Amino acid sequence: MRLAAPIPLYGPPGIADRLAHFLTNTSTRSPIESAFAVHDLHDGHRARVGPLTLTSRAVAHGMPAFAVRVEAAGASLVYSGDTAPCANLTTLADGCDALLCEAESAHAPAGGEPPVHHTPEEAGDTATAARARRLIITHVGRFLSPEQAMARAATRFSGRIDYAAAGSSFSIG
Question: Which one of 45, 56, 90, 117 has the fewest CB atoms closer than 10 angstroms to its CB?
């Protein structure tokens, strides 16, 4: 699928200003921004991009963050993004063909702040609660190998588990 400019870009509220700052590091707007049609996400946001239907839900990350469900031709993939386990992610992933979920080795940030990531076991719990057919783990922390993360997730999810290594691709549905 080839998209013509401007390319749709969906992100948390204020993404256009953050992108502008990132591109120029000044108050002057970058002409490259015209390549994007920027849309601020909100909980329950729905969009169509070519044959894809995208639905987002706000998730628990301590700052605005969203998970997305991508559906096309009867198949569905849900990407958790960065989030602690939360009801919105479980609901969004309900019955999905594949849940692409982060699996950090630990989730408690310093200072007693609330967790903002899934552990591998929690990724397995979310996949089980959502009745996902497959779990693909990503964003594995540096203190854990992908094999260890998959083994830990398998203690809580009995379906197929894969690791999203750089350059890998998966058939969904």
Answer: 45
